[in-house]
Design goal:
- It is a single chain.
- About 45% of the residues lie in helices and about 10% in strands.
- By secondary structure, the protein is α+β, with helices and mostly antiparallel strands.
- It has two domains: about 55-170, no CATH class; about 190-295, FdhE-like domain (FdhE-like fold, Alpha-Beta Complex), CATH 3.90.1670.
- It has a six-stranded mixed β-sheet, covered by helices on one side.
- Strand 4 and strand 5 (about 255-260) form a beta hairpin.
Length: about 300
């Protein structure tokens, strides 16, 4: 019987958060149930194991309740224009570790594999400093998530891969920053589609509890915020004429792709009784990959 690559990851007993261990177990189960997802599941697992294996250096944010309220009431994310002192050396090292984890996967080990070549080129560019991860992180937090892709293209690197690994590098840091700032959001209304903490678009939505209230989840800092059930995060549409959903007939109640006829964007929503732990978001994203295919086939797409 072939060895499940995710099972091998589970055996590497370095310090790992409990919710990350749970996500690895879920990914292993998913790859067994759906062999066509095994390589993608192994990729997610490798990234989770690096991203959540120890506590990152977390910068503090000098933001009081009055300033936070002013920002949120004006539609400005809490981290926008804040001086966040990120550890440049740690970011550079973590990015290279993520590259190394993917290079070690069975499906990227071949010397002729295009993904391997792209990963090696990225790893070297970060090591030499020609691709500055700290500068890219600052750009992302100031509202320019595309600069790292543009810089990667200038260096003949894979722009999508460069941006994806930058987000994985930042996620465990910004997740902790978001927890610091969460008390400042209490009792304040935020009805925007973008994250109240960092300004990124949601990764997916949770339809929580018996009432299926919609909570969006950020893909960069894992923040959670409630929005109206009839709502498009990307163009602010709020009518039944604009908002619909797509689904697989066997899972309509649990998993949906929420669509907008005004901007033709979509996001995925999963039914849950409680908040999904941050590593589990990537399991939910992979479990609903079929919804991405359904939405794309019907000409809906992501924002931007």
């Amino acid at each position: 019987m072939p060895i499940n690559p995710i099972s091998k990851l589970l055996d590497r007993r370095k310090p790992l958060r409990r919710d990350a261990e749970q996500a690895l177990t879920q990914l292993a189960r998913l790859s067994e149930q759906h062999p066509d997802l095994a390589e993608v599941a192994a990729t997610h697992a490798a990234l989770i194991r690096v991203a959540f294996r120890e506590a990152p250096p977390v910068p503090s944010v000098s933001l009081d309740a009055v300033a936070a309220a002013t920002k949120l009431q004006g539609g400005v994310p809490l981290l926008r224009n804040e001086q966040l002192r990120l550890d440049a050396a740690w970011l550079q090292g973590r990015y290279q570790q993520l590259c190394e984890a993917l290079l070690d996967l069975p499906h990227t080990r071949s010397s002729t594999n295009l993904s391997r070549t792209a990963l090696q080129a990225l790893q070297q560019a970060v090591k030499r400093g020609t691709l500055d991860i700290h500068a890219a992180a600052i750009d992302i937090l100031t509202g320019d998530p595309y600069s790292i892709g543009q810089r990667a293209e200038q260096l003949n690197l894979d722009p999508e891969l460069a941006a994806t690994l930058a987000r994985w590098t930042l996620l465990p840091v910004l997740e902790q920053v978001a927890k610091q700032l969460e008390p400042l959001r209490q009792n304040l209304v935020w009805d925007k589609g973008y994250c109240p903490t960092c300004g990124s678009w949601p990764m997916l939505a949770e339809r929580r509890g018996m009432e299926h209230q919609i909570f969006l989840r950020c893909g960069l800092c894992a923040s959670s915020w409630q929005v109206a059930n009839i709502f498009c995060p990307f163009c602010n549409a709020r009518t039944h004429f604009d908002i619909g959903y797509l689904y697989d007939e066997s899972q309509e109640a649990e998993q949906r792709a929420m669509t907008c006829e005004r901007c033709h964007c979509y996001y995925k929503a999963v039914a849950t009784l409680a908040t999904i732990p941050t590593p589990g978001l990537f399991v939910a994203d992979l479990e609903t990959l079929h919804l991405d295919l359904i939405a794309l086939e019907r000409a809906y797409g992501p924002p931007g």
